[in-house]
Protein backbone atom coordinates (compact mmCIF):
# COMPACT_ATOMS: atom_id res chain seq x y z
CA UNK A 1 0.00 0.00 0.00
CA UNK A 2 1.57 3.25 -1.05
CA UNK A 3 1.60 6.05 1.48
CA UNK A 4 2.27 9.67 0.74
CA UNK A 5 4.50 10.80 3.53
CA UNK A 6 4.98 14.19 5.11
CA UNK A 7 8.63 15.18 4.86
CA UNK A 8 10.39 18.55 5.25
CA UNK A 9 9.45 19.35 1.67
CA UNK A 10 6.27 17.23 1.89
CA UNK A 11 6.84 15.65 -1.49
CA UNK A 12 8.34 12.18 -0.97
CA UNK A 13 6.50 8.87 -1.10
CA UNK A 14 6.98 5.66 0.88
CA UNK A 15 5.35 2.25 0.73
CA UNK A 16 3.61 0.98 3.85
CA UNK A 17 1.60 -2.14 4.61
CA UNK A 18 -1.69 -2.22 6.48
CA UNK A 19 -2.35 -5.27 8.63
CA UNK A 20 -5.30 -5.89 10.86
CA UNK A 21 -4.38 -8.68 13.25
CA UNK A 22 -5.90 -8.38 16.74
CA UNK A 23 -3.36 -8.53 19.55
CA UNK A 24 -3.18 -8.09 23.33
CA UNK A 25 -3.77 -4.44 24.14
CA UNK A 26 -1.56 -1.93 25.93
CA UNK A 27 -3.10 1.23 27.32
CA UNK A 28 -2.44 4.69 25.90
CA UNK A 29 -0.69 7.38 27.91
CA UNK A 30 -3.82 9.47 27.38
CA UNK A 31 -6.69 8.48 29.69
CA UNK A 32 -8.70 5.99 27.57
CA UNK A 33 -11.86 6.84 29.50
CA UNK A 34 -11.99 10.34 28.06
CA UNK A 35 -13.82 11.39 24.93
CA UNK A 36 -14.41 14.61 23.04
CA UNK A 37 -11.26 16.23 24.46
CA UNK A 38 -8.45 17.80 22.51
CA UNK A 39 -4.87 17.12 23.52
CA UNK A 40 -3.93 20.73 24.22
CA UNK A 41 -2.38 21.78 27.49
CA UNK A 42 -3.40 25.41 26.95
CA UNK A 43 -0.02 27.15 26.64
CA UNK A 44 0.50 29.52 23.71
CA UNK A 45 2.95 31.96 22.12
CA UNK A 46 1.56 35.18 20.66
CA UNK A 47 2.97 37.35 17.87
CA UNK A 48 1.67 40.93 18.09
CA UNK A 49 1.79 43.39 15.16
CA UNK A 50 5.35 44.29 14.22
CA UNK A 51 6.90 41.10 15.61
CA UNK A 52 9.04 38.99 13.27
CA UNK A 53 9.91 35.35 13.25
CA UNK A 54 13.40 35.44 11.77
CA UNK A 55 15.14 32.71 9.80
CA UNK A 56 16.00 29.86 12.15
CA UNK A 57 13.72 31.11 14.95
CA UNK A 58 10.91 29.04 16.44
CA UNK A 59 7.99 29.19 18.87
CA UNK A 60 7.66 26.35 21.42
CA UNK A 61 4.82 27.07 23.90
CA UNK A 62 5.50 23.89 25.90
CA UNK A 63 8.87 22.12 25.54
CA UNK A 64 8.56 18.70 23.96
CA UNK A 65 5.07 19.15 22.46
CA UNK A 66 4.94 21.19 19.24
CA UNK A 67 7.00 23.79 17.40
CA UNK A 68 6.41 26.54 14.82
CA UNK A 69 9.72 27.14 13.06
CA UNK A 70 10.85 29.57 10.37
CA UNK A 71 13.35 27.23 8.74
CA UNK A 72 16.60 28.46 7.18
CA UNK A 73 15.33 27.15 3.82
CA UNK A 74 12.44 29.64 3.95
CA UNK A 75 9.66 27.21 4.87
CA UNK A 76 7.38 27.98 7.83
CA UNK A 77 6.51 24.62 9.41
CA UNK A 78 4.39 23.30 12.29
CA UNK A 79 5.92 20.19 13.89
CA UNK A 80 4.79 17.72 16.51
CA UNK A 81 7.79 16.92 18.68
CA UNK A 82 8.62 13.39 19.74
CA UNK A 83 11.52 11.85 21.61
CA UNK A 84 14.31 14.31 22.52
CA UNK A 85 16.80 14.39 19.67
CA UNK A 86 14.54 12.22 17.52
CA UNK A 87 12.51 12.98 14.40
CA UNK A 88 9.68 15.52 14.31
CA UNK A 89 6.35 15.13 12.52
CA UNK A 90 5.55 17.97 10.10
CA UNK A 91 1.85 18.84 10.37
CA UNK A 92 1.61 21.90 8.10
CA UNK A 93 3.91 24.11 6.04
CA UNK A 94 3.73 27.32 4.01
CA UNK A 95 5.37 25.79 0.93
CA UNK A 96 8.00 28.54 0.77
CA UNK A 97 11.11 26.36 0.93
CA UNK A 98 13.87 27.30 -1.49
CA UNK A 99 14.11 30.85 -0.15
CA UNK A 100 17.07 30.93 2.29
CA UNK A 101 16.84 33.67 4.89
CA UNK A 102 13.09 34.25 4.49
CA UNK A 103 11.27 35.51 7.58
CA UNK A 104 7.68 35.88 8.82
CA UNK A 105 6.02 39.11 9.97
CA UNK A 106 2.80 39.85 11.86
CA UNK A 107 1.74 43.11 10.20
CA UNK A 108 -0.20 46.05 11.59
CA UNK A 109 -2.92 45.47 8.98
CA UNK A 110 -3.66 42.00 10.43
CA UNK A 111 -1.91 39.99 7.73
CA UNK A 112 0.74 37.40 8.59
CA UNK A 113 3.29 37.26 5.76
CA UNK A 114 6.38 35.25 4.84
CA UNK A 115 8.85 37.54 3.01
CA UNK A 116 12.04 36.93 1.09
CA UNK A 117 15.25 37.74 2.95
CA UNK A 118 15.42 41.30 1.59
CA UNK A 119 11.66 41.83 1.27
CA UNK A 120 9.17 43.63 3.47
CA UNK A 121 5.92 45.63 3.58
CA UNK A 122 7.51 48.54 1.72
CA UNK A 123 9.76 46.63 -0.65
CA UNK A 124 7.62 43.62 -1.62
CA UNK A 125 8.92 40.09 -1.90
CA UNK A 126 5.97 38.37 -0.19
CA UNK A 127 6.09 34.58 -0.61
CA UNK A 128 2.95 33.57 1.29
CA UNK A 129 0.32 35.20 3.51
CA UNK A 130 -2.84 34.43 5.49
CA UNK A 131 -5.04 37.00 3.66
CA UNK A 132 -6.19 38.44 7.00
CA UNK A 133 -5.38 42.06 6.10
CA UNK A 134 -7.90 44.80 6.68
CA UNK A 135 -7.86 45.03 10.47
CA UNK A 136 -9.50 48.07 12.06
CA UNK A 137 -7.49 50.37 14.31
CA UNK A 138 -8.99 48.81 17.47
CA UNK A 139 -8.94 45.20 16.21
CA UNK A 140 -5.80 44.05 18.07
CA UNK A 141 -4.77 41.52 15.40
CA UNK A 142 -2.39 38.79 16.43
CA UNK A 143 -0.96 35.40 15.51
CA UNK A 144 -1.13 32.67 18.15
CA UNK A 145 0.65 29.31 18.22
CA UNK A 146 -0.76 26.84 20.75
CA UNK A 147 0.95 23.81 22.20
CA UNK A 148 -1.60 21.49 20.59
CA UNK A 149 -0.07 22.45 17.21
CA UNK A 150 -2.72 24.94 16.09
CA UNK A 151 -1.48 28.19 14.55
CA UNK A 152 -4.08 30.89 13.92
CA UNK A 153 -4.22 34.53 12.88
CA UNK A 154 -7.17 36.76 13.76
CA UNK A 155 -8.36 40.33 13.49
CA UNK A 156 -11.77 41.97 13.90
CA UNK A 157 -13.27 40.56 10.71
CA UNK A 158 -11.08 37.73 9.41
CA UNK A 159 -9.47 34.59 10.72
CA UNK A 160 -7.16 31.90 9.39
CA UNK A 161 -5.67 28.76 10.92
CA UNK A 162 -3.62 25.69 10.07
CA UNK A 163 -6.37 23.42 11.48
CA UNK A 164 -3.71 21.22 13.06
CA UNK A 165 -5.04 20.88 16.61
CA UNK A 166 -4.13 17.73 18.52
CA UNK A 167 -7.02 15.38 19.27
CA UNK A 168 -7.50 12.90 22.08
CA UNK A 169 -6.07 9.40 21.57
CA UNK A 170 -9.58 7.97 21.94
CA UNK A 171 -12.09 8.49 19.10
CA UNK A 172 -15.66 8.06 20.33
CA UNK A 173 -19.02 7.67 18.66
CA UNK A 174 -21.08 10.72 17.80
CA UNK A 175 -24.41 11.08 19.59
CA UNK A 176 -27.23 12.51 17.44
CA UNK A 177 -28.48 15.82 18.77
CA UNK A 178 -25.61 16.25 21.24
CA UNK A 179 -22.28 16.37 19.47
CA UNK A 180 -20.58 15.15 16.34
CA UNK A 181 -16.98 14.15 16.90
CA UNK A 182 -14.85 13.99 13.77
CA UNK A 183 -11.34 14.59 12.54
CA UNK A 184 -10.72 16.95 9.64
CA UNK A 185 -7.62 17.22 7.48
CA UNK A 186 -4.65 18.20 9.66
CA UNK A 187 -6.03 16.71 12.87
CA UNK A 188 -3.64 14.44 14.74
CA UNK A 189 -3.17 12.40 17.90
CA UNK A 190 -0.31 10.64 19.60
CA UNK A 191 0.65 7.94 22.06
CA UNK A 192 4.02 7.26 23.67
CA UNK A 193 5.32 5.50 20.53
CA UNK A 194 3.42 6.83 17.50
CA UNK A 195 1.68 9.78 15.88
CA UNK A 196 -1.45 9.49 13.75
CA UNK A 197 -2.51 12.26 11.37
CA UNK A 198 -5.24 12.78 8.78
CA UNK A 199 -3.09 14.38 6.09
CA UNK A 200 -4.03 17.03 3.56
CA UNK A 201 -3.87 14.31 0.89
CA UNK A 202 -6.74 12.49 2.75
CA UNK A 203 -4.54 9.63 3.95
CA UNK A 204 -4.79 8.60 7.60
CA UNK A 205 -1.22 7.65 8.49
CA UNK A 206 0.55 6.31 11.58
CA UNK A 207 4.18 7.35 12.05
CA UNK A 208 6.69 5.77 14.41
CA UNK A 209 8.29 8.27 16.79
CA UNK A 210 11.68 6.60 17.06
CA UNK A 211 12.54 7.12 13.38
CA UNK A 212 9.59 8.92 11.73
CA UNK A 213 8.72 5.95 9.51
CA UNK A 214 5.15 5.35 8.36
CA UNK A 215 3.96 1.97 9.66
CA UNK A 216 0.27 2.00 8.65
CA UNK A 217 -2.15 3.97 6.49
CA UNK A 218 -5.73 3.90 5.29
CA UNK A 219 -4.60 4.10 1.65
CA UNK A 220 -7.05 6.92 0.92
CA UNK A 221 -4.59 9.43 -0.53
CA UNK A 222 -5.54 11.32 -3.66
CA UNK A 223 -9.28 11.86 -3.20
CA UNK A 224 -10.11 15.35 -4.41
CA UNK A 225 -12.94 15.82 -1.89
CA UNK A 226 -11.78 16.40 1.71
CA UNK A 227 -12.31 13.41 3.97
CA UNK A 228 -13.24 13.31 7.66
CA UNK A 229 -12.69 10.53 10.20
CA UNK A 230 -15.74 9.63 12.27
CA UNK A 231 -16.79 6.86 14.63
CA UNK A 232 -20.41 6.03 13.92
CA UNK A 233 -22.81 5.38 16.78
CA UNK A 234 -23.17 1.87 15.38
CA UNK A 235 -19.48 1.12 15.93
CA UNK A 236 -17.93 1.59 12.48
CA UNK A 237 -14.87 3.87 12.23
CA UNK A 238 -14.85 5.39 8.74
CA UNK A 239 -13.32 8.01 6.46
CA UNK A 240 -16.16 9.85 4.71
CA UNK A 241 -16.37 12.57 2.10
CA UNK A 242 -16.99 15.91 3.80
CA UNK A 243 -19.68 17.02 1.35
CA UNK A 244 -21.12 13.54 0.69
CA UNK A 245 -21.17 11.70 4.04
CA UNK A 246 -22.71 8.62 2.43
CA UNK A 247 -19.54 8.19 0.37
CA UNK A 248 -17.28 5.99 2.52
CA UNK A 249 -13.63 5.71 1.40
CA UNK A 250 -12.38 3.48 4.22
CA UNK A 251 -13.90 1.70 7.23
CA UNK A 252 -13.04 -0.79 9.93
CA UNK A 253 -16.14 -2.91 9.26
CA UNK A 254 -17.15 -3.01 12.92
CA UNK A 255 -20.72 -1.85 12.46
CA UNK A 256 -23.24 -3.38 14.82
CA UNK A 257 -21.41 -2.64 18.06
CA UNK A 258 -23.20 0.30 19.67
CA UNK A 259 -20.91 2.98 21.11
CA UNK A 260 -17.67 1.21 20.16
CA UNK A 261 -14.61 3.44 20.28
CA UNK A 262 -11.11 3.57 18.79
CA UNK A 263 -7.91 3.99 20.82
CA UNK A 264 -4.36 4.85 19.74
CA UNK A 265 -2.24 2.86 22.18
CA UNK A 266 1.26 3.22 23.60
CA UNK A 267 2.23 -0.09 22.00
CA UNK A 268 1.63 1.45 18.56
CA UNK A 269 -1.61 -0.40 17.90
CA UNK A 270 -4.78 1.42 16.79
CA UNK A 271 -7.72 -0.60 18.12
CA UNK A 272 -11.53 -0.48 17.91
CA UNK A 273 -13.08 -1.78 21.15
CA UNK A 274 -16.58 -2.69 22.25
CA UNK A 275 -18.19 -0.05 24.48
CA UNK A 276 -17.38 -2.08 27.61
CA UNK A 277 -13.97 -3.27 26.37
CA UNK A 278 -10.52 -1.77 26.49
CA UNK A 279 -6.90 -2.34 27.46
CA UNK A 280 -6.73 -5.13 30.01
CA UNK A 281 -10.42 -5.99 29.50
CA UNK A 282 -10.48 -7.34 25.95
CA UNK A 283 -13.31 -6.68 23.51
CA UNK A 284 -11.14 -5.71 20.52
CA UNK A 285 -13.10 -5.65 17.26
CA UNK A 286 -10.42 -4.41 14.84
CA UNK A 287 -6.77 -3.40 15.05
CA UNK A 288 -4.10 -1.95 12.79
CA UNK A 289 -1.77 -4.82 13.76
CA UNK A 290 1.15 -2.45 14.33
CA UNK A 291 1.92 -3.36 17.95
CA UNK A 292 5.03 -5.31 16.91
CA UNK A 293 6.43 -2.53 14.72
CA UNK A 294 7.38 0.27 17.14
Describe this entry's structure for a reader.
This protein folds into 2 domains: 2-39 and 167-287, Agglutinin, subunit A (Orthogonal Prism), CATH 2.90.10; 44-160, Agglutinin, subunit A (Orthogonal Prism), CATH 2.90.10.10. The protein has no helices and 26 strands. It has a 4-stranded antiparallel β-sheet with strand order 3-12-13-14, with no helix packed on it. Strands 4-9-10-11 form a 4-stranded antiparallel β-sheet, with no helix packed on it. A 4-stranded antiparallel β-sheet has the order 5-6-7-8, with no helix packed on it. The chain starts with a strand and ends in a 7-residue tail after the last strand. By secondary structure, the chain is an all-beta fold. A hairpin with a 3-residue loop joins strand 10 and strand 11. The radius of gyration is 20 Å and the shape is elongated.
Q: What are the main properties of this structure?
A:
mainly beta; 26 strands; Agglutinin, subunit A
- Highest-level CATH class of the largest domain: Mainly Beta
Radius of gyration: 20 Å
Structural class: mainly beta
How far is the N terminus from the C terminus? 19 Å
> Could you state the order of secondary-structure elements as H and E?
EEEEEEEEEEEEEEEEEEEEEEEEEE
CATH topology value of the largest domain: Agglutinin, subunit A
Number of strands: 26
Amino acid sequence: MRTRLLRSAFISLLAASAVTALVPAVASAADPSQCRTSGTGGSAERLLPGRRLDSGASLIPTPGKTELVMQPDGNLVVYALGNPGGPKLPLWHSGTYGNPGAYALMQEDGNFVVYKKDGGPQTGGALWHTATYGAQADAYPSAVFMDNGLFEVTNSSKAWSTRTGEQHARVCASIPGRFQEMWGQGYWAQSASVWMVLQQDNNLVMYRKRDGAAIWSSGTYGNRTPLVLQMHEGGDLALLEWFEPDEVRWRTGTRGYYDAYALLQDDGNFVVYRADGGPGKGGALWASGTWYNV
